[in-house]
Amino acid sequence: MKSDLKIGLALSGGGARGISHLGVLKGLNEVGIFPNQVSGTSAGAIVGAMYCQGYQPEEILKIILDTNYFKFMKPAISWTGLLKMTSVESLFKLYLKDNDFGKLQIPLTVTATDIKKGKTVYFSQGELIPAVMSSACIPGMFEPIIIGNKHLVDGGILNNLPVEPHEGTCDYVIGVSCNHLPEESNIKNMKNLIERSVIMMMNHNVYSRRDKCDYFIESPGLGKIGVFDLKKAPELYKAGYDEVRRFIDENPSILELKNE
């Protein structure tokens, strides 16, 4: 069945856990479901930008596996962050060569947080790379990105599942989250406590928007994986793929969204 319905896809942030989005995209594409527009926060913005540029999920995974990210990181001499997010700009330019929302094959919206005004900012036109960098700018880790008069940090602070760009423009919205927390009976140390608390806050942000999704896909237990644990990229990719295949089996109505 080929559908003329317009499908919006919202991808959450979650650091390395966002690699699972690639597995979800692979599984959806395999059954003929392709988004007509994409939105993303942080890692979801990066995955979304690459996918909307035209890269296949497997290609993006290979780029992640082949890249030494640490050589692009440079320390910041500033009280606002440990690292310069702008030092990663050269890496983005390797793969997002047009640096223009208008040149993407699929329309994309990314979110960031205006830290001074305490508001979510949406980008869907103009320069692509600064918007994606601001969406993934973890507060305290990276210096804020300045665009115009806005000081921007990670979009996940206020909106970690940006379904709003699809409201009124799409017939169906698929939300994908990558931060599901397993039950934890033993909090071992302060680091574990802080990390779990942050993810819980992020998930509250996500779950408050869950009802706005017609389909919500969340791989179980990914919250136990560290935000920078890129060594687990293959495991994360497989987790996303396995979950979407399971989801399709249990929710066959999603196949009515086939558009190819």
From TrEMBL:
Alphabetically list the UniProt keywords.
Hydrolase, Lipid degradation, Lipid metabolism
Q: Motif GXSXG, which positions? A: 40-44
Q: Where are the transmembrane segments?
A: none
State the superkingdom: Bacteria
Which residues does UniProt assign to the signal peptide? none
GO BP term, example:
lipid catabolic process
* Gene3D superfamilies (alphabetical): Cytosolic phospholipase A2 catalytic domain (3.40.1090.10)
All residue ranges annotated as the PNPLA domain in the record: 9-167
Motif GXGXXG residues?
13-18
Name used for this protein in its record: NTE family protein
**Organism in which the protein naturally occurs:** Algoriphagus zhangzhouensis
